[in-house]
Amino acid sequence: MWSCGVLNGTGRGEDQLLCPHSHLVLSVLSLLCLVVGVPVGLGYNALLVLVNLCDQSSMTMPDVYFVNMAVAGLVLSALAPVHLLGPMASGWALWGFSSEVHVTLLVLFNVCSLVTMYSTALLCLDCYIERALPRTYMSSVYNTRHVCGFVWGGALLTSFSSLLFYICSHVAARIVECSRMQNAEAADAILVFIGYLVPAVAVLYALVLISQIRKEDTPLDQDAGRLDPSVHRLLVATVCTQFGLWTPHYLTLLGHTLLTARGKPVDGHDLGILLFAKDLSRLLAFSSSPVMPLLYRYMNRNFPSKLQRLIKKMHCRHQSCSVDHAGAQQRSA
């Protein structure tokens, strides 16, 4: 993890002066994410899942994808304290764990990132299908639920190849079978290609198609089965937010892979910048957990009404119990 120690002996005085300030900024952002981001992420993601699952009859195709992203956000919020307070923290770790636990946490983080990126990409593609062919039910809620299941399964399978590289790099260095797989950079390269480039191309392609349809005035624009126009604004905001928060993480993975592929030793200055960028980009990735449900809460027109129905349903259950109790007392009198 990044610390000022990697800059010792570089001979650059300006780096030595800026390092404590950068370390302080990173520590403050980590504490802010821990104190504010984690509770908000856990609370709002759980609320998003609960509200939609308790009113499944009114769920739409975008709601299913946002529930899928909320589940990934719950896992990210649960992982954030371990990353921020564990041995991966910058100089103020409260506990330590073995290499096996480190690999497990890293794989869970990668699975959540894959689920988030592919849910965003599939949301864009299904919104295009729903806008172009609103009555084909190709992007129905039923089909979307199965697609989200495949997304989780695909993320686990995709992480398996990276898991082998990480295990051989951290755990099984003395095993003969791992002698040719002790390369964590190969795992990072796989994640950059599959976890970022593929969904990025899919999102770009879908947005281009949606923009072309929006320019055309067709009789289908009056179809009641089409998605609400506010969904397009929520879609654009979701894409910009998710890719804005996750792109730095994948760029640091790509930068680390390219620096290692040169075959030259990395000096302290470049290593310090890379590790600082890695810590900062991971903080941005964790911040997607509280940001996305808040975005969904304030840009989705149906969420407030769903939340009110859920509150009334819970309140009515309590009311009915009290009414029944009062009626029983009257009958007994």
TrEMBL record:
Annotated Gene Ontology cellular components are: plasma membrane
Cleaved signal peptide residues: none
Any one Pfam family match given in the protein's UniProt record, by short name: 7tm_1
Q: Which UniProt keywords apply?
A: Cell membrane, G-protein coupled receptor, Membrane, Receptor, Transducer, Transmembrane, Transmembrane helix
PROSITE patterns, sorted: G_PROTEIN_RECEP_F1_2 (PS50262)
Superkingdom classification of source: Eukaryota
From the Swiss-Prot or TrEMBL record, state where the protein is found. Answer: Cell membrane
**What topology does it adopt in the membrane?**
Multi-pass membrane protein
Under InterPro entries, the record lists: GPCR_Rhodpsn, GPCR_Rhodpsn_7TM, GPER1-like, GPR146
Positions of transmembrane segments: 24-53, 65-85, 105-129, 150-173, 189-210
**GO molecular function: any one?**
G protein-coupled receptor activity
* Residue intervals of the G-protein coupled receptors family 1 profile domain: 44-296
Q: What is this protein's record name?
A: G protein-coupled receptor 146
